[in-house]
Structures are given as C-alpha cells and as structure tokens.
Design brief:
single chain; mainly alpha; 0% strand
C-alpha cells in the first residue's frame, strides 16, 4: 500500500509541474510579434526581383541596406537589380560592399563576375570564377552559371594584320 501512495504522490507532483508549464504566464514568453520591417522589406524586394520589377527592387533594397548596412545579401540583391537596370557603376559598388562584408559570398562572386563580363573585364570575371571554385567547387550552381556566361562571351581575338 505504501508503494502505491509513493507512486500517487509522484504522479500528483508530475501533474502539478506539468500544469504550471501550461499557465498563461509561460505562454507570454512565446514571441507573437510581427516580423521586423526590415525582413518584410527584404522579402518584398526578393518578390520584386523574381517578377523583374527592377526599379521597385532598387527602391526597396536601398531602404533595406540603409537600415541593415552589414547585410551582404541585401547589397548583393541591390547590385543585381542595378545591373538589370544597366546602372553598372552602382551595381559594382553594391557587389563590392557585399564582398567587403562577406568575402566568401557566393552569389556576389557570381553576379560580380557576370558584371565584369558585361564591362569587358574578362580577367576579373575569371578571378571570380576561381573564387567560386575555391568556395563551392566546380559543381555548384553559381560556378556553373558564371562558367556558362564566360563560355557565351569568348575573349576578343586580335584582328589579323593586313
């Protein structure tokens, strides 16, 4: 009989402890706030990029990187959007900022390499390709994308002398 009383007390104690963890005070510790505005701005800018709304993406991303100056992803997306608008100087600056924050940012290496091709700086594009090989290997998507871009733009060959 004493064994069952001990078991009963253990069970009762366990129930009391369990009930205390379900009180409203414990539930108040669970965050219920909306995501920060910055996260929403980044999410909206990604949606603008996906739908090729480059000017909208630039506006959202400018505000985002101003509020989050150390976010390499934000600067990379801003560089991408500038590049799509043909604003190459601003694009290069945004990629440079992304790589200053995170020198191993795979996306920034790919996109800056593509920009270098557009600007006729093939050697710099190749340097980014080598960085991608070191960072993620020759099978990663970013490496393959930049390699295809390089293959699509063969180097200028000198014109034969006449």
């Amino acid at each position: 009989m004493t064994v069952s009383r001990v078991h009963l007390r253990i069970l009762w104690t366990a129930l009391l402890i369990g009930a205390q963890t379900l009180t409203p005070a414990a539930a108040a510790d669970i965050p219920t706030r909306n995501p920060p505005v910055e996260d929403r701005a980044l999410r909206e800018s990604r949606e603008a990029v996906k739908s090729s709304q480059w000017a909208r993406a630039v506006g959202l991303l400018q505000a985002y990187v101003k509020a989050n100056p150390q976010d390499a992803d934000g600067h990379n997306l801003l560089g991408f959007s500038y590049r799509k608008l043909g604003r190459y100087t601003e694009s290069e600056a945004a990629y440079d900022r992304a790589l200053a924050i995170d020198p191993n940012h795979i996306g920034a290496h790919e996109y800056r390499g593509e920009l270098m091709l557009l600007l006729g700086r093939r050697e710099k594009a190749l340097a980014h390709l080598h960085s991608l090989e070191r960072l993620c290997g020759v099978q990663c998507e970013e490496y393959q994308d930049l390699l295809r871009a390089l293959d699509a733009r063969p180097p200028d060959r000198p014109k034969p002398r006449q």
